[in-house]
Amino acid sequence: MLKVGILGAGTMGSMHANCYAQLPDVEVVAIADKRTDLARKVAEPLGARVYEEADELIEKADVDIVDVCLPTPMHKEFVVKAARAGKHVFCEKPLALTIEDGEEMINECEKAGVKFMVGHVLRYFHEYVAIKKQIDAGAIGKPAVVRASRCASQPLGWQDWYRKREMSGGVCLDLIIHDFDFLRWCFGDVERVYAKGTTFTDIPVEYALVTLRFKNGVIAHVEGSWAHSGFFTTFEAAGTDGLLYFDSRTASPIRIFVRRKGEEKAAVEVPESPVNESPYLREIRHFVECVAQDKEPEITGRDALEAIRIAIAALDSMKTGKPVTL
Q1: Distance between the two ends of the chain, CA-based, in angstroms?
Q2: Residue 302 CB: number of other CB atoms within 10 A?
Q3: Which DSSP string corresponds to 52-98?
Q4: pLDDT tens, 294-312?
Q5: CATH number of the domain that 14 lies in?
Q6: Are 35 and 158 a contacting pair, CB within 8 Å?
Q7: Do residues 129 and 275 share a domain?
Q8: 85, 114, 143: which is the final residue of a domain?
Q9: pLDDT tens digits, one per residue of 161-199
Q10: For 190, how many CA atoms within 13 A lie in the half-sphere containing its CB?
Q11: Residue 62 and residue 157 in one domain
């Protein structure tokens, strides 16, 4: 039986607790959050003990896994402390606010010999898995240009930390980091980043438009917003043989428009059921299996480090008005 302690009883901490509860041979035994009322709501159905301090959970709770669902500025401190205590660590994205912090977290986990995975859950969303499979299978030929959007309302959180750029990193580091990781998974490393946005302005809404050029020649335009009234994502990829299109706001599955000899065929549909297994459950199950079977996670700390490298380059580009070469 693997025992889990979760740091943070907010939205993601509660989500992760629910996922662990659905897995065999796994037990959530401890929840830590200064907001003990929230911690109790998560802990009581699971029979878990509540700790007010994350340090106390790491020091006193008998756990194999520490799951870090705290605001981003706290990631480094508690990932490092958990690793040094010999605990396997799952950490919510983004990895950290700086490259230096991210590297230290990875090095400490490697030194301690513990498993470490970061929650880039988009790789477990059925629609995005299907998108990658279609691209890899050559459904649109050689990919050339990609456009991705991820738009939502302003998130709320402990002490309104999402609104504080120095804590959340804004949409680049907190929201469209999902897309940076997914695009890198699909197309490899990025060589140049250019971005425009409101992060460093007096405009009271967060919006960014980021252009990525990949080493293989693919160009991607990534839009992120916390200025919308609802949540939606879109994804388009144009290649030498056609176009792949996905929009979360429609009931239609992924559509692929294939062009052959100058003629456009009807769209090919790739069925994806919205009632399939939760991507968060798939993600957590994978990490638990890695711990139980002593194998490396599919999403490594190094992958997460490259995602924040792209996001930080986008923020630097916004500030300077110039492209950033990685």
Answers
A1: 43
A2: 14
A3: S-HHHHHHHS--SEEEE-S-GGGHHHHHHHHHHTT-EEEEESS--SS
A4: 999 999 999 999 999 999 9
A5: 3.40.50.720
A6: yes
A7: yes
A8: 114
A9: 666 666 667 899 999 999 999 999 999 999 999 999 988
A10: 32
A11: no
Q: Is 196 inside a domain boundary?
A: yes
- CA dist list (Å): 171 to 122, 138, 163, 220: 16, 31, 10, 17
Q: What residue type is 101 in one-letter code?
A: D
Domain assignment present for 302: no
Please give the Cα distance from 139 to 301 (Å, whole number).
31
Nearest to 222 by CA among 189, 177, 257: 177
* Domain housing 198: 122-279+308-325
The tokens describing 184, both together, are: 């890198």
Distance in angstroms (rounded) separating the CA atoms of residues 43 and 14: 9
Specify whether 51 is located in the same domain as 35.
yes
Domain boundary among 82, 114, 146: 114
Q: Which of 65, 60, 20 has the alpha carbon at shortest distance from 42?
A: 20
The domain spanning residue 231 has which CATH number?
Answer: 3.30.360.10
Per-residue pLDDT at 263 exceeds 70 = no
pLDDT in tens, 198-252: 888 888 788 999 999 999 999 999 999 998 888 999 999 999 999 999 999 987 7
Q: What is the pLDDT of residue 166?
A: 67
129 and 9 housed in the same domain: no
* pLDDT of 265 above 50: no
Count of the separate structural domains present in the chain? 2
Check whether residue 198 and residue 257 sit in a common domain: yes
Tell me the whole-structure pTM to 2 decimals.
0.93
